[in-house]
Each structure stands twice: as structure tokens, then as C-alpha cells.
Design a protein that fits this description.
- The protein has one domain.
- It is built from one helix and no strands.
- The model has no long low-confidence stretch (mean pLDDT 92).
- Keywords: Coiled coil.
Length: 131
């Protein structure tokens, strides 16, 4: 009987050691699980933060694109306005040149008419005195 008790005590000690080893392994696995869980939570938090940052950056990018399009339109309109002003100035200079040329042509015609009248008058006087 004492031999049986000794065997049972040894089995109990062996089982207690196994339980201690299993509990130690369980603690280690639980600790690894908790570390992994904490790391997962941290990564989820980082992901949410980066996702929000990305969304903010995308909104900012869209706003910048819109602003760029608006600035291009404004720049284009300003360039068009400048071009129109130059064309208007050139047209005014051309009109002034045409007006001056027209005045010169009218002046020339007036002088030619006057010369013709003088020549006619002189011709009449010369022919009139000779007859």
C-alpha cells in the first residue's frame, strides 16, 4: 500500500509539474495574445489616424485642384483681357492713321481741284486775251 501511495505521490508531483508547465505555457501564450491584441489595437488606431489624414489630404488636394482651375481661368481671362486691350489700342491707332490718311487725301484732292481751277482760270485768261 505504501508503494502504491508512493507511486500516486510521484504521479501527483508529476501531474502538478505538468500543470505548472501548462499554466506557465498558458501564461506565456496569454501574454503573447495580449501583446498581439495591444499591437493590433495600436495598428487599428494608427490606421484610423492615417485614414483620416489621407481623407483630409484628399479633400485638401481637391480644394487645391479647384483653386488651380479657378486661377487658370482668372489668368486666362486676364490674358484675354490684356490681348483685347492691345487689339483695341491697335485698332484705335489704325483708325487714327486712316483718318489722317483720309484727311491727307482730301487735302490732296482739294489742292488738285484748286490747281485745276487755277489752271482753268489761267487757260481762260490766256485764251480769252488772245482772241
Amino acid at each position: 500500500m505504501s508503494g502504491k501511495l508512493t507511486v500516486q505521490e510521484e504521479e501527483i508531483i508529476e501531474l502538478v509539474d505538468k500543470i505548472a508547465a501548462v499554466e506557465e505555457e498558458l501564461n506565456r501564450v496569454t501574454e503573447l495574445f495580449m501583446d498581439s491584441k495591444n499591437e493590433l489595437l495600436q495598428r487599428k488606431s494608427d490606421l484610423q489616424s492615417k485614414t483620416q489624414e489621407l481623407e483630409t489630404t484628399q479633400r485638401h488636394l481637391q480644394e487645391m485642384k479647384l483653386q488651380l482651375v479657378e486661377e487658370e481661368c482668372i489668368t486666362s481671362a486676364a490674358a484675354l483681357e490684356t490681348t483685347e486691350e492691345r487689339h483695341h489700342d491697335a485698332a484705335n491707332r489704325l483708325l487714327n492713321t486712316v483718318e489722317e490718311a483720309t484727311k491727307d487725301v482730301f487735302g490732296l484732292h482739294s489742292k488738285l481741284d484748286c490747281k485745276k481751277a487755277v489752271d482753268q482760270h489761267n487757260a481762260d485768261d490766256v485764251f480769252g486775251k488772245n482772241e
